[in-house]
Amino acid sequence: MATNQEDIAANGDVVLIVGGDDTVVGQKRLRVSSHMLSTASPVFKALLGPHFREGAQSRSSTSPVEIPLPDDISELLSYLCNLLHAKHLPAFDALNADKLYELALTVDKYDCSSTLRLQSRAILMSWDYSNTSPMLELRDLWNLATAAYLLREPLGFRVYTEKLITHTKGRLSVLRELPCGGVMPLEILVAIEERRNLARAEFIERVHDGAMCLVCLKLDNKGFLDVIAKGLGSDQWPPDLGRKNNVTIMDGLSKVRGMKGYRYPCCPHVSPHFEGLVDCIKQKCGAVCLDCVLEGQLDLTTECEKHA
Questions:
Q1: What's the confidence (pLDDT) of residue 245?
Q2: Cβ atoms within 10 Å of 242's Cβ, excluding its own
């Protein structure tokens, strides 16, 4: 297959030969600076040091040393080396969730997550900014949460674990079957499922209480509860927001808030209780804290306040 070269550092003293001859795209040559790589990554520092044959060779910008990396993927290593050389690629603004996870694996392999902390956050959050749908793909969110875990990026981890609670439907156990399914500790998946169940139960309770007034002895004024149930795909109240239901927590909140006069489902006596519905549900949808996970102090049901 043809070999092509990318000059990430025009005067670089190292050429990384990435991929094998049997790959679809063939090998790719990445010209880089050994100083930049060694400073940013302890793995590259060792590889380019005196204890490896390639590292012990004399190298310069006029006579760069070649280092084969047949097990790496050229596209991903190109992304990594560009980041380590403080270069921006247009592709960084359009990486899908699968590719972000694969890039995170490469960053983790070369142990440079701390060096790329700010870049990692920007790339992870750019996906969130461009995807505003009330229902997101379970696989995408899990890939992104796993990427944030590998990159040790706490903000991205909070954002995507919270979206796994609020924007997904169906069984979370299927996530263990994905290629990235076993990367994170099982307790993270358990915590997400537990908080999602708590939020669903809180939604049912709060909506029901908001439609009932013990002062006026009114319940379900103008069929409010039935309208909500039907809007969520159920024939009766309470709707099934369990694992078999095709509804997310955000679907439920959007349906309630989209109703005309939703703050007054019954009478003025209960309106203050009902107005706090969204905030109350959000408290039950607290994201998982990466620092708590890494410290082995994850609470399955309560959002962290220590590292906020």
A1: 59
A2: 11
Q: What average pLDDT does range 119-143 have in this prediction?
A: 87
* β-bridge mates for residue 32, sequence order: 14
**Which of 69, 65, 79, 70 has its CA nearest to residue 34?**
65
- Residue 292 CA to residue 308 CA, distance in Å, equals 11
pTM: 0.86
Angstrom CA distances, 235 to 200, 229, 230, 231, 269, stand at 18, 7, 6, 9, 28
Q: What is the pLDDT of residues 108-118, one digit of tens each?
A: 999 999 999 99
DSSP lists the bridge partners of residue 225 as none
Q: Which helix (H) or strand (E) holds 37?
A: helix 34-40
d(CA 80, CA 83): 5
Which of 11-15, 86-90, 272-276 reaches the highest mean pLDDT? 11-15
Place of tokens 């519905």: 277
Nearest to 66 by CA among 88, 98, 43, 34: 34
In this structure, the strands spanning 28-32 and 14-18 are antiparallel
287 touches 301 (CB < 8 A): no
